[in-house]
Amino acid sequence: MDNAPIDAAPAETPPVDPDREWTVWALGTLRELVDIDMRTAAGSRASTSWPGTGSSRR
Q: How far is CA 47 from CA 26, 30, 33, 52, in A?
C-alpha cells in the first residue's frame, strides 16, 4: 500500500548535464575495456616470460 499523500508533488528531476553524461559513459566504457584486458592478460601470463631471463612474469 502506498502511504504517500495523493496531492503530493512529484519529485523534481535534476537538470541534465551533458558533460556529466559523457563522463559517466566514458568511464563505463573504460571499465569494460580494462575488464577485457585483465581477462585477456590473465590467460596469456602463464606462457609468457621476460626476455633474456627465462623467468615467468608471475
A: 33, 27, 23, 15
Cell readout for 56 is 615467468
pLDDT digits (tens, 9 = 90+) for 10-57: 678 877 888 999 999 999 999 999 999 988 887 766 555 556 655 555
* Cα angle, residue 8 at apex, residues 5 and 12 outer, rounded to 5°: 140
Q: Is 49 helix (H, G, I), strand (E, B) or coil?
A: strand
Largest CA distance in the chain: 76
**First-last CA distance in the chain:** 57
Q: Which residue has the cell 519529485?
A: 11
pTM (predicted TM-score): 0.46
